[in-house]
Amino acid sequence: MAIPQKIYEEDHIIFRESVRRFVEQEVAPYHEQWEKDGIVPRELWLKAGDAGLLCPTIPEEYGGPGADFRYNGIVDEELAKAGYTGPGFSLHSDIAVPYILHYGSEEQKLEFLPKCVSGECIMAIAMTEPGTGSDLQGVKTTAVLDGNEYVVNGSKTFITNGQNADLIIVVAKTDPAAGAKGTSLILVEGDREGFKRGRNLEKLGMKAADTSELFFDDVRVPTANCLGEEGQGFVYLMQDLPQERLSVAVSAVAACEGALQWTIDYTKDRKAFGKSIADFQNTKFKLAELKTEITVARVFVDRCLELHVNGGLDVETAAMAKWWTTDLQGKVMDECLQLHGGYGFMWEYPISRAYADARVMRIFAGTNEIMKELISRNL
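Structure (tokenized):
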């Protein structure tokens, strides 16, 4: 018997059922085709917006439900548990849109947030560059002031929602000589002259998620497109990263739970030497170990979620959650694939997809090596 998740109330449970139905009806039948296409259709975003799955934390005055982050977590969990990594809802709702809510002007909030909630405006955030990974202080993209406009030049890569995005938060240097203090967040609409989307990158996993190169060639945007104060971009990024890492941890644990259930079902059905694979002691012990470790991770992540909702999740704890759960995810997928035998290596089995999808979890939102560096600073 699993430990009950006491952090959820009745309204959360009702919402979870609606999310589960949405995933079953609007995602499951089409995800295989989206993997071949390398992108999910924009129509899915509009359906998700209509179903209330996007941006649950946006206040009512900006078109949202004004809910707490637990609702975001439920959307992340249901998609991850089912093994569907195509829809970039978490990047949109958990990571990109909150920057506008937290740091945007009233005009920016009124212009963009209602459309983000409805799915009419899909967001991306452009941090990583070809020459910089986790080193956000080292970005080369510039936004040079020219009268009442910024002129943006540079390139970004590995950008989730890059092909679909209508609005991109670009991490750029407004004062290259000032280091981190010269970093700003600039909003660039997808139809600006000089902005180009590069190829939709072919990846090891998460094949239905569009991930792109983006190019900015003398892209002019008004100074009103600066998000928050000029020069404060690095501070804003550091303040919002704990939520991003919590989002990753929530998805990682849910993916583990889904993979474990697939493996239990498979080993009960699969026969070898005259009995179910599940009846072999090795199988039972492996599954027992995985269930225990996943349960421990679940309790910790739920506690982190509770802390975050109450405003108490710090950088160190979020880093612990991100590192621990994504490392565990890699282990769980490997063990579960092994218990599937040769069929686990076949793409038609969800464990094969989940194995491939899991690998990047130790890299994005800050590599796990960076997470250990952050944790070690308070030792």
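The chain is about 50% helix and 15% strand. Residues 10-121 form a domain with the Butyryl-Coa Dehydrogenase, subunit A; domain 1 fold (CATH 1.10.540.10).
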